[in-house]
């Protein structure tokens, strides 16, 4: 596993976010009719074509659908094709102990990364046996400590569940259950530049005060933006790239695979 680049404080850092891959133990496993291993491979190929130099990959939860060691090993192998260091955080479908077994002898689960003139803090918002998320006290303490230790750095905070409304009524109850506790910490530290999450299987890019709030497509099925009830969108699988500039500015965009044909099968194993 490559180590994080030793960028100077004057260097921009280039990140790729891979999220919600929902892999199975079997390579032919499908979610609502989509082969999630195949769709992740397609996204990885797109990243390889578009991004020759990646400083860090952020995998923001739901790497696995079935929580098996085989699924995490497959995720590690597939993303390893990019030849870049990576960090993982769990989502509501993940099994943290199995994930840790798959990440053995690596830095994949380290929660704080200093890169360029930035610090990235990765939090665990998953609750065992629960779809909604919650940041436990130790996670909030980790965040506060990480922010207070390096006031001179710009900060990016990552976790799985959405902390604000994304205008999808059916997703309102399954986001972060204690966002006020999160923002109570973030509001104390003016060096926070952005918050990044997964879970919502769609592109989100908005602001809260001076903090950018960002979510990204899944590498498999997409959720239809603005839907009142559960609805799979026709958007193709994709990823997000982020360029963290030394002055605290953040450039970002979403890229999706092309020529991807997919027929939704609502009768198959559901989300």
Automatic annotation (TrEMBL):
Q: Which residues form the signal peptide?
A: none
Name the InterPro entries for this protein: Calcineurin-like_PHP, CNP_phosphodiesterase-III, GpdQ/CpdA-like, Metallo-depent_PP-like
CDD domains to which the protein is assigned, alphabetical: MPP_GpdQ
Q: Does the keyword RNA-binding apply?
A: no
The entry's keywords: Hydrolase, Iron, Metal-binding
Keyword check for Metal-binding: yes
Sequence ranges assigned to domain Calcineurin-like phosphoesterase in this UniProt record: 16-202
Q: Which family does it belong to?
A: Belongs to the cyclic nucleotide phosphodiesterase class-III family.
Q: What is this protein called?
A: Icc protein
């Amino acid at each position: 596993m490559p180590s994080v680049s030793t960028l100077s404080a004057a260097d921009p850092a280039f990140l790729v976010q891979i999220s919600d891959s929902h892999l199975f133990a079997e390579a032919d496993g499908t979610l609502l009719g989509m082969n999630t291993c195949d769709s992740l491979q397609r996204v990885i190929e797109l990243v390889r074509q578009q991004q020759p130099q990646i400083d860090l990959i952020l995998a923001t939860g739901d790497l696995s659908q079935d929580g098996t060691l085989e699924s995490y090993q497959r995720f590690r192998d597939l993303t390893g094709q990019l030849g870049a260091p990576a960090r993982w955080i769990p989502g509501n479908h993940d099994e943290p102990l199995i994930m840790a077994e798959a990440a053995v002898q690596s830095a994949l689960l380290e929660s704080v990364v200093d890169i360029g003139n930035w610090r990235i803090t990765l939090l665990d918002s998953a609750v065992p046996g629960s779809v909604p998320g919650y940041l436990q006290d130790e996670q909030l303490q980790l965040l506060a400590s990480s922010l207070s230790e390096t006031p001179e750095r710009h900060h990016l905070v990552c976790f799985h569940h959405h902390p604000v409304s994304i205008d999808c009524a059916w997703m309102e109850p399954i986001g972060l259950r204690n966002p006020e506790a999160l923002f109570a910490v973030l509001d104390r530290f003016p060096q926070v530049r952005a918050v990044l999450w997964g879970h919502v299987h769609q592109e989100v890019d908005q602001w809260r005060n001076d903090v950018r709030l960002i979510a990204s497509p899944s590498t498999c099925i997409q959720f239809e933006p603005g839907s009142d009830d559960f609805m799979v969108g026709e958007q193709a699988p994709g990823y997000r790239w982020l360029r963290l500039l030394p002055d605290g500015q953040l450039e970002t965009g979403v890229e999706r695979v092309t020529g991807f044909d997919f027929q939704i099968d609502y009768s198959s194993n559901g989300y």
